[in-house]
Design a protein that fits this description.
globular; about 220 residues; about 55% helix
């Protein structure tokens, strides 16, 4: 009779690996992206004003909006004034290494309904419906930082799924090393701002990793009656 003492169950080993990897990766990535969120001046990331305005509009039920006649290529939406003002926030520190972000005015807390425009109309409203929720309970800069934190939470969670899937590969050390190298400072930077691109990229990574895991996992052996 073959002794099974000291042998691990084939189902228990992946479980002991997967859970710690998922939660630790999510926590670490979320902290790093959140640091980028507070370190990056408001509206200083690519197209962030357009995404903030779209998020505030979608979460208030304006999923599409109407093509703008004032600004071709944009969509007219109705949002709180402090959100609409993000289109006019001057990036007085852009391309000026000696200038600090302190030259830009701090967002107001004016919640008066105001017409605005956004170029982010063609993107799916799902992302915006999620990250726009802080603007329903907060206003001014706290609402914008709340949107950034939610983006970081979504992006880091999807990347954690990818890490957890790769941790179950036979040669997981190399797979996870490659994944870690793919999480560049640009990923952390964008993941800490209001932008659907990092969520889409992290979702693609999570999908690819889990699909590779599915196709690499052998089917369960048939049990004879």
């Amino acid at each position: 009779m073959t002794s099974t003492t000291g042998r691990r169950s084939p189902l228990s080993a992946p479980r002991r690996i997967r859970i710690p990897v998922f939660w630790s990766a999510w926590a670490l990535l979320f902290v790093l992206m959140s640091l980028w969120s507070v370190a990056t001046p408001l509206m200083a990331s690519p197209d962030e004003p357009a995404h903030v305005i779209r998020a505030a509009a979608v979460v208030r039920g304006e999923f599409v909006g109407n093509p703008s006649t004032r600004v071709p290529g944009t969509t007219d939406v109705t949002v709180p004034k402090y959100i609409a003002d993000t289109n006019q926030l001057p990036l007085c520190f852009a391309h000026l290494p000696a200038a600090t972000a302190g030259c830009a005015p701090w967002p107001s807390h004016d919640t008066t309904t105001t017409a605005s425009t956004t170029t982010a109309t063609l993107n799916s409203p799902v992302f915006y419906a999620i990250v726009g929720t802080p603007s329903l309970v907060l206003n001014g800069a706290p609402a914008m930082y709340g949107m950034r934190i939610l983006t970081a939470l979504l992006t880091s969670g999807l990347l954690a799924i990818a890490f957890a899937a790769l941790a179950r590969f036979p040669h997981r050390r190399f797979a996870m090393m490659g994944m870690a190298l793919g999480v560049t400072p640009m990923v952390l930077f964008l993941g800490g701002t209001v932008n659907p691109n990092p969520v889409e990229a992290a979702g693609a990574a999570a999908t690819l990793a889990t699909m590779m895991l599915i196709f690499r996992t052998p089917p369960p052996a048939a049990h004879s009656g």
